[in-house]
Amino acid sequence: MRVQAGTEEKGDVLVVIEPAKKKEIVIKSKVQVMYGEAIKNTVKEMTKNLKKVKVEISDKGALEWVLRARMEAAMRKYRGEKE
Amino acid sequence: MPVNAVGREVPSEINGVRFKPFAGDMKTPPEGRRAGSLIRMTPRGRNKVVKSLKEVIKNVGLEDGMTVSFHHHLRNGDFVVNMVMKTIEKMGFKNIRLAPTALFPIHEPLVPMLKNGTIRRIEGSMNGPLGKATSEGYMKETAILRSHSGRVRAIESGEIHVDVAFIAAPTADAYGNLNGVDGPSACGPLAYAMVDAYHADHTVAITDNLVPYPAHPISIFQHQIDYVVPVDKIGDPAGIMSGTLRITTSPTRLKIARYAVKVIEKVALKPGFSFQAGAGGVSLAVTKFLGDIMRKRGIKASFINGGVTKYVVDMLHEGLVDVVFDGQAFDLDAVRSLKEDPNHIETPLAMYGNPYSSGGVVNMLDVGVLGATEVDIDFNVNVNTHSDGYLLHGIGGHQEVAAGAALTIITVPLYRYRVPVIRERVTTVTTPGEVVDVIVTERGIAVNPKRDDILEALKGTDIPVWDIEDLMKKAYSICGRPEEPKTTDEIIAAILWRDGTLIDVVYKVKNH
To answer: Do the domains spanning B49-123+160-240 and B251-484 agree at the CATH topology level?
Structure first.
């Protein structure tokens, strides 16, 4: 099932998780040059126990804690927790 | 490459022309005499009105490689640059040097002309798409950016020789008297274009409001204008005027404005003081809050230099300030006031802040409040490039206001979204820390260590005073430390200090 958390507003991030044949992380960020690596590391670390998923990040300059909160929300939805 | 006074490596030659490294403000004395223009003759009865741009371009004898100039009073509502440049392109001219005061997103149609060789380089401010295209390497030669006053200096000294000045004129008569206060595309002053009218070999006014002789009031006079071309529309009023500018409602920005006003109140507020106003959200709030304090304490200012908006005009008409100097009008209230109030004075850009003159308005400023894209721990300011390395903005009057004003305040948020504004090192130096006094953020302020007097004056206030390095650490703790932009070693633009020395260069970005 495809789930998402967050928005595409400035300062926020949209996280989309869906099943896939193998694990894939796609990051699009307005601050790619300055924080692309940092975002990738955060997402990798938070999803280290997830397999066979595609994680798509559309970032509009969200702070680290915003990214972590959106990731956590998306992962809980993906695991089927009630909203 | 030599290292300049702000520690940046700069080449000694750009586009085959020698430039000195920046040595500090007022450290490089001028040389030589002012440059002139072609002397022309106009017998009685000659008709200056020409029906088409094509015809006028033939009449002035435009050639490949020549320099053409424009002003930007019509801002993002300007039609004139595009219509002239498209005509030039269609007529097959190549390698034109474009020397506008500034270009905006509306001028994106010029991007293909960088690629097809119509334009070899732009010497002027590029806000948006043209800056982006330049950053990605599409300009054949190296762009040169100057401040408003730096451009005046360059034209006066012959560093830029303008072959043809195309001057958008909201009102003109058939003999070339021009103003900007009347007509459907009214923009206020024509201050930016005055130096071009005086120093260009050929001058063409382009108007959508041809009035009976003599047009009046007169900003640019008939003896400097060779041709007048009537067109349907020179601009879109919605892009020329900003509409009713609103004071920011962001709590962060309001807090910045309140801290800035507090600093002004403690350090510089006295009867007859003067300040520089702007149109940004924080600037408007500063102007308004300052007005409130002046009213309460019965203090009157001698002049406001602008960047004129309704807020400035209201202060003039309320009697809170004696004179408004106007180089640029942002709304219709400002245009109307310029037309009707003799104490609202249009100032030629040459009077503004050219260091190589007998003294500009900025030398008389007590307070300048300016913005920034980035500020570093040496108080250097960047307004030209974003933190990802893209060149996206011009210098405006930033350099001369900072250099001239007795108290220079930079108002910035600590970070914008995830990008720290206070950094270890700015991506590009526009204005050196030596002319910057106070950085104001929503968390508090940092004072340039060489201004003990300011620290002393602020004792006993409730404004948090920080060491600038601690402000940077605070920003990095919230955002994380930013990675440096990925650039190549190819220089795509030179940033000149107002005296024509090289303060920094901008490199082509990688992997776009």
So the answer is: yes
Q: Which positions in chain B touch A33 (Cβ < 8 Å)?
A: 387-389, 483, 485-486
Q: A71: domain range?
A: 3-78
Answer whether A32's CB lies under 8 Å from B388's CB: yes
Where do the domains of chain B lie? Answer: 49-123+160-240, 251-484
Neighbours of B185 (CB within 10 A): 27
Distance CA A4, CA A73 (A): 8
Mutate to test the interface with A, among B386, B390, B416, B417 (most CBs of A within 10 A): B417
Contact B482 A64 (CB under 8 A): no
State the fold for domain B251-484.
Glutaconate Coenzyme A-transferase (3.40.1080)
Q: Within the 352-391 window of chain B, which residues sit less than 8 Å (CB to CB) from chain A? A: 387-389
Q: Which residues of A touch B483 (CB under 8 A)?
A: 33-37
3-class DSSP state of B352: coil
Cα angle vertex B373, ends A39, B480, to 5°?
Answer: 25
CA closest to A11 among chain B residues: B417
Looking at the domain assignment, is residue A83 inside a domain?
no
Global pTM?
0.95
Nearest partner of B396 among B381, B406, B407, judged by Cα: B381
**Is-contact B407 B261, C-beta < 8 A?**
no
**What is the spatial distance between Cα B409 and Cα B439, in angstroms, rounded to a whole number?**
6
The verdict on B510 touching A (C-beta cutoff 8 Å) is: no
State which amino acid sits at residue B361.
Answer: V
Per residue of chain B (512 residues), give pLDDT as tens.
899 999 999 999 999 999 999 999 999 999 999 999 999 999 999 999 999 999 999 999 999 999 999 999 999 999 999 999 999 999 999 999 999 999 999 999 999 999 999 999 999 999 999 999 999 999 999 999 999 999 999 999 999 999 999 999 999 999 999 999 999 999 999 999 999 999 999 999 999 999 999 999 999 999 999 999 999 999 999 999 876 678 888 999 999 999 999 999 999 999 999 999 877 878 899 999 999 999 999 999 999 998 899 999 999 999 999 999 999 999 999 999 999 999 999 999 999 999 999 999 999 999 999 999 999 999 999 999 999 999 999 999 999 999 999 999 999 999 999 999 999 999 999 999 999 999 999 999 999 999 999 999 999 999 999 999 999 999 999 999 999 998 999 999 999 999 999 999 999 999 76
Q: How many CB pairs under 8 A join A and B?
A: 46
B478 touches chain A (CB under 8 A): yes
Q: Find how far residue A17's CA is from the centre of its chain.
A: 7
- When CB atoms are compared, the residue of B417, B478, B485 closest to A11 is B417
- Domain membership of residue A37 (yes or no) is yes
Domain count, chain A: 1
Topology (CATH level 3) of domain B49-123+160-240: Glutaconate Coenzyme A-transferase (3.40.1080)
CB of A30 within 8 Å of a chain B CB? The answer is yes
A1 and chain B in contact, CB less than 8 A: no
Among B165, B180, B176, smallest CA distance to B227 is for B176
